[in-house]
Write a structure and sequence with these properties.
The complex is a heterodimer of chains A (130) and B (158).
Chain A lengths: L1 E5 L8 H7 L3 H20 L7 E4 L4 E7 L4 E10 L2 E11 L6 H24 L2 E3 L2
Parallel strand pairs in A: 1-5
Antiparallel strand pairs in A: 1-6, 2-3, 3-4, 4-5
Chain B lengths: L9 H4 L6 H24 L4 H7 L4 H8 L7 H10 L4 H7 L4 H7 L2 H10 L3 H35 L3
Classes of the chains: A alpha+beta (130), B mainly alpha (158).
């Protein structure tokens, strides 16, 4: 199995790659290395780890990563044949309780990932993760 | 179908960072610890909340550890490993460089079981080397005793 970035044919870019490209500085490097280690670990152990979980309502999985003490990162992916397709990534605040506005925001991100999954299944466009 | 669009790739660039190897090693260590704690907790049938309560911590801390997001202190490692009944094997999984030390100190009966589940070539080579060196030593002692006897016979033929 290998990891790939989903390529959006209309936006002409990979949303997850673009998301990663926005990380800068020493802290950004550490976060990217942590994410990289998680993705490679997922490839090694066929997707069963403590840091990723399935989102059954959507048919894809999420990798959980912390950016800072108050911001979390979620990377959404699904498996297509021997590919682990990185569909979408977003940040969300780390709170004890999420209000309805926060929940709507997260739902919106999941829907973007779901759309990306449908587009990928139609076009099968991707870029290699490495 | 593969495409080649964005030229800049931050994920590839991090490999050039001066501390890449050190940061990656640290990330992998945290992930191995995360998996060992997660598996041990699941095996014991504990929720994150229940485990947190047992070690006087919070569910959020356990969640962060199992996500591989935090470097835990030695005190937390002590409490977790005691509560989850970690064995030497758990620590060998987390810190693979300990493997050599563990195989040398665990009882012989357990070594057989251990080497069955994790074949260790270096251990096999150690055994072969030990056997070969003993054989050489024995043969040298034997030949030395023969030559001594021979000399004795030559000097004292009677």
């Amino acid at each position: 199995m290998k990891a790939v970035y989903f390529f959006h044919p209309v936006q002409k870019r990979c949303p997850v790659k673009k998301f990663f490209n926005e990380f800068t500085g020493e802290k950004g490097v550490r976060v990217l290395i942590d994410i990289r280690a998680k993705i490679l670990r997922l490839l090694e152990c066929n997707g069963l780890t403590s840091f990723s979980k399935p989102l059954r309502a959507y048919g894809f999985w999420e990798i959980k990563q912390r950016k800072t003490s108050s911001i979390l990162i979620r990377i959404l992916y699904f498996r297509s044949g021997n590919l682990m397709v990185l569909l979408h990534a977003f940040e969300k605040p780390d709170k004890k309780k999420y209000n309805s506005k926060d929940m709507r925001e997260v739902e919106r991100e999941y829907k973007i990932a779901e759309q990306n999954r449908l587009i990928f299944n139609k076009n099968k466009l991707y870029e290699d993760f490495e | 179908m593969k495409t080649l669009n964005e030229k800049f790739d931050a994920m590839a660039e991090v490999k050039k960072h001066k501390n890449f190897k050190r940061f990656l090693r640290s990330a992998n260590l945290r992930l191995r610890l995360a998996e060992e704690i997660y598996l041990a907790r699941e095996t014991k049938g504990l929720s994150q909340q229940e485990l947190a309560k047992k070690i006087s911590s919070t569910q959020k801390v356990i969640s962060n550890i199992e996500n591989g997001d935090v470097n835990i202190g030695i005190d937390m490692l002590d409490r977790l490993s005691e509560e989850l009944e970690f064995t030497a094997n758990n620590f060998v999984t987390i810190f693979p460089h300990l493997e050599k030390g563990v195989i040398e100190t665990i009882p012989e009966s357990e070594q057989v079981e251990y080497s069955f589940s994790f074949p260790r070539t270096e251990n096999i080579f150690c055994n072969i080397f030990s056997e070969v060196s003993t054989a050489i030593k024995n043969s040298l002692t034997f030949s030395s005793s023969i030559s001594k006897n021979h000399e004795t016979q030559l000097v004292n033929p009677m």
